[in-house]
Specification:
Layout: H1 8-28, E1 33-34, E2 39-40, E3 43-49, H2 55-70, E4 76-80, H3 82-88, H4 93-100, E5 107-112, E6 115-118, E7 133-142, E8 151-159, H5 163-179, H6 181-187, E9 191-192, E10 203-204, H7 206-225, E11 229-230, E12 236-238, H8 239-245, H9 247-251, E13 259-261, E14 264-268, H10 273-281, E15 292-301, E16 317-327, H11 332-349, E17 355-361, H12 374-390, E18 396-399, E19 408-413, E20 421-429, H13 431-435, E21 440-441, E22 447-448, E23 451-460, H14 461-472, E24 485-489, H15 495-507, E25 512-514, H16 521-530, E26 535-539, H17 541-546, E27 548-553, E28 557-563, H18 564-576
Helix pairs in contact: 1-2, 6-14, 11-12
Length: 590
């Protein structure tokens, strides 16, 4: 999706359209006053002091904007002194606040017909160039972002050079809204948030926790087969732990505030590596034991700015599918390849194909962020390059994206809508083992320091779930669906038979629900479709007499009559193999 802020032409056009909107608002609400109207990534907005805006008001504003654009007034820049600006806007406390914050000297203003606004610019030449616009949303916003101040009305919009570009963008917005995991999560009762609990602290409802458990079991089973050992560590640690690791110096701005308890200072942990370092240090180790693969589905807490929070994709509490692998230098390449193989094995299971690999390196000029050891960095970065080249992975290099203790491979996914982000990562670390004085006894009897691979395959379960929900629009594969089968009796007369079918499904380990409401079957089927249920079993007189079931699915519609045992066998095969069934378009169904 286009970034209006970075595209110079769209930036200028949208800034001009913000003024067009302000002109229209001023005509409808003569007493309106304006704070700021910047261009942002998703278009433009203006904060306005007017009565609460409704959807009907938005329609009026759009109508007036069209008139203003049709007037085709030139947009004229001029400069006035600061004293003149203070006089011109003397009745507008918001503009006065802006003017008083400027240096002495001339101030630029822009005029279009009957409207003049304070602005640095630049703008397009004529209001008619802003005719391809759409106001997309509105909300309340505190003046200057301070909850002690008055609530202004923030109105967002977009503008394009052509109507075709606008139409294409609006279609993308509609698609993004349909895929937004926050909407899907609410519609399907997967998770909830509440300000009384706290921002960025989502709670998983029964159906959401079912998905969670499936993901956790899925990745744990894969790890166990690969020799990982799972551990459980506390959600807090002392400040001294993070001072030892270096996180306190490099990461404390992203931590929650420290807590004083019984003469100790604790913090909620933002990551798990220090705990896992201490588990390794708990016992002596020989080179014969390495690699040691410690893994944990770990609860972590990071302070994220409220504006960055987004459902379960980015919260202040999340659970990492984390692991720390302790290796000898000779084992780095083989173990790193094993991690990469696991990443792509998982991606195959979930049909994830749109991704790119990034080798994230340090910025040598940034001595604040990165551990100061040139030899260590050069060794680590070259080791990753050689490993990636040896296993034939295409990748790009990005300077300044490494962790403070080492370079990493990031696998960035490109979702159906929105910007790409990192889903999986594997980091090479020579630093923390030294900081914790970790050792193993080598073949020659000397003590050596191990190297650590930090890796997360699903990233965090929260973000991975958000990604899958958005990619599938909530139509999860059967093995992952919280409800796999909906049993639908045609009427009360068939509830007993339907209940026997339901109980057999449950006894076979299939997640099933039964709908015994006094509703028409068409309504029950529509409800099950809206809930993205993979299979519906419609049961009436014919099915009861024959002792079978009528199967409808999300994938093919009416699949006809089947014996219950046959259906269960096929379904369990689909679940155990994690098969992804493609949906047949409605027009192609029989």
């Amino acid at each position: 999706m286009v970034n209006f802020k970075e595209d110079l032409e769209l930036n200028t056009l949208n800034h001009s359209c913000a003024h067009l909107m302000a002109q229209a608002i001023k005509r409808i609400y003569p007493d309106a006053k304006f704070w700021v109207g910047p261009v942002v990534e998703e278009g433009f907005y203006y904060d306005v002091d007017v009565p609460t805006i409704t959807d009907e008001d938005i329609e009026k504003i759009e109508k007036e904007m069209k008139k203003c654009a049709k007037d085709a007034k030139r947009i004229v820049r001029s400069e006035i002194s600061k004293a003149e600006a203070l006089e011109m806007f003397k009745d507008d406390e918001y503009k006065l606040d802006l003017i008083n914050g400027l240096d002495d000297g001339n101030i630029s203003i822009y005029t279009q017909g009957d409207f003049t606004d304070l602005c640095r610019g630049p703008h397009v030449d004529n209001t008619k160039l802003c005719k391809n616009f759409k106001l997309i949303k509105h909300s309340g916003a505190y003046w200057k972002g301070d909850s002690k101040n008055k609530v202004l009305q923030r109105i967002y919009g977009v503008c394009f050079p052509t109507p075709e570009e606008l139409e294409d963008h609006l279609k993308l917005l509609a698609e993004a809204k349909e895929r937004d995991h926050r909407k899907i999560g609410k519609d399907l009762s997967i998770f909830m948030t509440d300000d009384l609990i706290g921002q960025g602290l989502p709670m998983f409802l029964p159906k959401g926790y079912t998905i969670w458990n499936e993901l956790e079991t899925y990745i744990r089973d894969k790890e166990l087969r690969l020799g990982y050992q799972h551990v459980l560590t506390p959600c807090i640690g002392t400040v001294n732990l993070y001072k030892t690791s270096g996180h306190w110096d490099h990461y404390k701005e992203n931590m929650f505030p420290a807590m004083e308890v019984d003469d100790e200072t604790f913090v909620l942990r933002p990551m798990n590596c220090p705990h896992h370092m201490m588990i390794y240090a708990n016992a002596p180790h020989s080179y014969r034991e390495l690699p040691i693969r410690l893994a944990e589905i770990a609860h972590d807490f990071r302070y994220e700015a409220s504006g960055a929070l987004k459902g379960i994709e980015r919260g202040r509490h999340f659970c990492q599918n984390d692991s720390h692998i302790f290796v000898t230098p000779d084992q780095i390449k083989d173990e790193f390849k094993s991690v990469v193989d696991l990443i792509f094995d998982v991606y195959k299971d979930f049909n994830i194909t749109n991704y790119r690999c990034v080798l994230s390196l340090r910025d040598p000029a940034d001595t604040e962020k990165y551990h100061p050891d040139d030899e260590m960095w050069n060794t680590a970065e070259q080791a990753l390059r050689e490993t990636l080249d040896a296993i034939g992975i295409e990748y790009t290099e990005e300077i300044g994206e490494a962790a403070f203790y080492g370079p990493k491979l990031d696998v960035n996914v490109k979702p159906a809508v929105g910007a790409e982000y990192t889903l999986s990562t594997c980091q090479l670390d020579f630093c923390l083992p030294m900081k914790f004085d970790l050792k193993y006894v080598d073949a020659d009897g000397t003590k050596k320091t191990p190297v650590v691979l930090h890796r997360a395959i699903l990233g965090s379960l929260d973000r991975f779930m958000a990604y899958i929900l958005e990619e599938t629009k909530g139509k999860l594969p059967t093995w992952l669906s919280p409800v796999q089968v909906k049993v639908l009796p045609l009427s009360d007369k068939y509830v007993d038979y339907a209940t026997s079918v339901y109980e057999k499904l449950r006894n076979e380990g299939i997640r099933a629900e039964i709908d015994t409401r006094d509703e028409k079957i068409g309504y029950k089927i529509r409800e099950a479709r809206l809930e993205r249920t993979p299979y519906m079993l419609v049961l009436g007189q014919q099915e009861e007499e024959a002792g079978n079931i009528a199967v409808r699915s999300r994938f093919a519609g009416d699949e006809g009559a089947k014996a219950l045992d046959e259906f269960i066998k096929e379904l369990k095969e689909e679940i155990s193999t994690k098969k992804i069934r493609e949906e047949i378009p409605f027009e192609d169904r029989k």
